[in-house]
Amino acid sequence: MLKILFRIMLASLFVLTIYQVSKINALTKEPDLSYIIKKIEMQQSKLITNVQDAVFMAKAMYSEKERDGILKKEVIAQRRIYMKRQGKLHEEYLNMIVNGTELDGKEKEKAIKDWQKKSKMSGTKMPFSLEGEGAYDYNLIGSEIRNGIPVWIIGFTAKQKGDGYINGKLYVSKDEYNIIYMDFTPTNIPSVLKDMKLSLTYSDIQGYWLPVKFEMDMKVEVKFLVNMFYRQIRVEDTYTQYKLNNKLSDSIFKG
Q1: How many other CB atoms are there within 10 angstroms of residue 152's CB atom?
Q2: What is the DSSP letter of 195?
Q3: What is the pLDDT of residue 255?
Q4: 3-class secondary structure, 28
Q5: How far apart are CA 216 and CA 193, in angstroms?
Q6: pTM of the model
Q7: How many CB atoms lie within 10 A of CB 162?
Q8: 7 has a pLDDT exceeding 70
Q9: 31-253 has which fold?
Q10: What is the pLDDT of residue 226?
Q11: Are the C-beta atoms of 127 and 155 separated by less than 8 Å?
Q12: What's the rounded Cα separation, in Å, for the pair 110 and 105?
């Protein structure tokens, strides 16, 4: 009788052990790509729904250097930016400094127009945005710890080439599936541009992960007969002092 009870106890212990192991495996099993994509879409939908508009400060620093590192041009542009969910954007330029000199009047206007041509990003169809919906294929590259945050690394590739489409990687937090960083390149890059790299860094702003820094590095090489024009260009644009849901009037964006 004791032998039978002992065997029953061993069998019960074995079953309980198997159950606990399977339970642990279920808890630690990493989700598949489709689940991660769905959770990212839910978070971005929440952001788009809850943040109707935003006003924030932006400071851009632009530099051009020759091959030997000599600085040829430096521009600092400080703006107040107004954005609305429907893709509306208005920039109010507070100052424009070129090579250490603050511009005004017609010189400032000309420098602003030149800057806007160089820095235009409004037509970019970002992954998981309204404009980029259905435009990208995704793949799960892996995971890592970024700035102390466990993240998924999601690769994205545009389904077509053209202006506004990009290829790159998203870094998505594992806990709440927020995009915290993105690096990318345009699908169409002119041959004169070399080693082009762009990135966006996000941060928690009033409970929503919004861009706080844009960075771009590239090299320009143009050969004309025997001469070679070379510039190493860097842009760093930082975004601060966010104010959300100000009920901005559409009149701000006219003109």
Answers
A1: 21
A2: E
A3: 63
A4: helix
A5: 12
A6: 0.84
A7: 11
A8: no
A9: outer membrane lipoprotein receptor (LolB), chain A (2.50.20)
A10: 64
A11: no
A12: 9
Of the segments 26-40, 163-177, 218-232, which one has the largest average pLDDT value?
Answer: 163-177
What's 225's DSSP letter? T
How far is the CA of 81 from the CAs of 12, 53, 84, 189, 229, in angstroms? Answer: 66, 11, 10, 27, 34
Take residue 204 and report the two structure tokens written for it: 């928690």
* CA atoms of 60 and 121, how far apart (whole Å): 13
DSSP string, 196-213: EEEEEEEEEETTEEEEEE
Angle at 252 between CA 250 and CA 255, to 5 degrees: 100
> What's the whole-number average pLDDT of the chain?
86
Distances (CA, A) of 151 to 105, 144, 174, 182, 216: 48, 6, 5, 12, 23
Residues of the chain with pLDDT > 90, as a percent, come to 67
The whole-angstrom separation of Cα 252 and Cα 222 is 40
- Parallel/antiparallel/unpaired status of strands 208-224 and 71-84: unpaired
In angstroms, rounded to a whole number, what is the distance separating the alpha carbons of residues 131 and 253? 19
Encode pLDDT of 137-147 as tens digits.
999 999 999 99
Length of the chain counted residue by residue: 255
Q: What percent of the chain has pLDDT over 70?
A: 85
Instruction: Provide the pLDDT for residue 144.
Output: 96
254: tokens are: 């006219």
Task: Give one word for 128, left, alpha or beta, with left for phi > 0 and alpha for psi -120 to 50.
Answer: left
Domain ranges of the chain: 1-30, 31-253
Handedness of CA 8, 9, 10, 14 (dihedral sign): positive
Is 90 exceeded by the pLDDT of residue 24? Answer: no
The C-alpha atoms of residue 116 and residue 137 are separated, in whole angstroms, by 30
For 9, the token pair is 């106890």
Nearest 5°: CA angle at 210, between 209 and 211? 135
Residue at 84: amino acid letter? K
